[in-house]
Structure formats: structure tokens, C-alpha cells
Amino acid sequence: SQQKIFKAGDTNQDGQLDFEEFMQYLKDHEKKMKLAFKSLDKNNDGKIEASEVVQSLKILGISISEKQAEKILQSIDADGTMTVDWNEWRDHFMFNPATDIEEIIRYWKHSTVLDIGDSLTVPDEFTEEEKKTGQWWKQLLAGGVAGAVSRTGTAPLDRLKVMMQVHGSKSNKMNIAGGFKQMLKEGGVRSLWRGNGVNVVKIAPETAIKFWAYEQYKKILTKDDGNLGTVERFVSGSLAGATAQTSIYPMEV
Fold first, then answer.
1. pTM for the complete prediction?
2. Dist. CA 109–CA 89, nearest whole Å
3. In the structure, what pLDDT confidence band is assigned to residue 247 with cuts at 50, 70 and 90?
4. What is the CA radius of gyration of the chain?
5. Which spans of this chain does UniProt mark as Solcar repeats (predicted)?
């Protein structure tokens, strides 16, 4: 955010942000935020309500519930009225370099963990700026590392699940403690993580294929007006997951 503000404010490109440039940035940014505020304030009463957030996002092809809209407003609402006036809006976004509604929605999505219909198994949608600056691969890398850590941490439970599914029956009842004892008896502590290496290695190609396939399917299914609706998003995500899973299936086996 600081880099974006600095880059936008440094109009003479001298590598420094002086007071006049900073003041001009604030004036220009306030104008953009005013336009964004007015576009959300559908009834022109000077306040943004949850229903107006739902309505505005629906126009952009994003469906959210009233509760999700309230969650957004709570992050901005300073006086607890569950509505956002111009002063609250300006104070909240003054030092956030978002310039239009689409960037503001993306900010809401990241900051409030807002579910706008994208499957968590499909990589995030990245803006052109995020693609150019390399932010996309950093997010994918962070997700891959997080996935590797979480899978490694739960690997013994995954092995136990499979063992109980295979060996458990009415005649051979196996509980959690008995399953762990059997795994330890077979190969010691290391056996609890047997197969986890491949499980972790497949995260990177699976994520990369999902990201690539999701982008390709979105291009194919985009409507004539250039917008991507909820159905197209759902189909793109489903096909991307199926494509990635089919590609890495030998590693699963």
C-alpha cells in the first residue's frame, strides 16, 4: 500500500514524495473515494447500508448475503450505527490506494475473508497489477507452504483414516488408539508420516494447474458483455478442480 501511494503521489518521478505531491494525492484520492461512495449510496441519503452493498455487488455479478454485507460495514463503521457515512468511508480508505469499486471489493474480500462464491480449492483471482508485480505467485507460494504444513501436521490422522476404512469392519472393530498402536508397531514413529512426501510434493503442480485451468475456462465462458457471472464462475472452478485432479491423479495413487 505504501509503495502504491508513493508511486501515485510522486508525479515528477524524482524518487521523493514532497508535501505538495502528497496533498495532491490526497485530493485526487478523495475524489475517487467520493465517486465510489456515491455509486454505493443508491438512495442518496448520505449513508451506505447493508442492502445497498448487496445491491451494488449484485450489479457487478457478485452475490453476497445481508450478513456478509453487515460484516463489511462493521469493518468501516466507527460509531456503531451499522451504516457508513462519508466521513467514516473517507477515513477508512484515505490511506488505502484502492481507486474504484472493483479494487475496493477485492480489498473487502481479502480483509474480511468474504466468500463471494469462489471455491477455496481454486486459486484466487488476480488483477493485472498483481500479475505484473509478481504478487500472484507470492500468494500461491504462501498457500502452497500453508498447505504443506497443514497436510504434514494432519498426515498421521489421514493414514489412520485410511487404515480404519480398509481394516475396520463389524468383526474387526478398530478405534483411534488401536489404529495408532498398529501403525507404530508396523514401522515406528516414522510410519505415521508414510507417503506424506508425495502428498506435499503434489501441492505445487496441483495449485499451478488449477490456476492455469481456471484462467482458461474463465476466458472460454466469459459472456459477450465481458462479465463473468456466478454460474460461469462455478463451472470454471469445477472444471479447473477436475482438470488439476486428473493431472496429478498418478501421484494420488
1. 0.48
2. 17
3. very high
4. 24
5. 134-220
- Taking the C-alpha atoms of residue 215 and residue 198, their distance in angstroms, rounded to an integer, is 26
Tell me the average pLDDT across 163-167.
Answer: 82
3-state secondary structure string across 38-61: HHHCCCCCCEECHHHHHHHHHHCC
Least confident of 7-16, 38-47, 161-170, 203-212: 7-16
> For residue 184, which of 175, 174, 192, 176 has the smallest C-alpha distance?
192
Query: In the structure grid, which three cell numbers stand for residue 70, read together?
Result: 453487515
**Predicted confidence (pLDDT) per residue in 224-237, tens digit:** 766 677 788 888 88
Output the DSSP codes for 121-175.
TSPPP--HHHHHHTHHHHHHHHHHHHHHHHHHHHHHHHHHHHHHHHH--SSS---
Q: What share of the chain is helix, strand, coil (3-state, %, to 5)?
A: 70, 0, 30
Classify burial at 247, counting beta carbons within 10 Å of its beta carbon; exposed 0-12, middle 13-18, buried 19 or more: middle
Amino acid at 133: T
Site of grid cell 481507486: 99
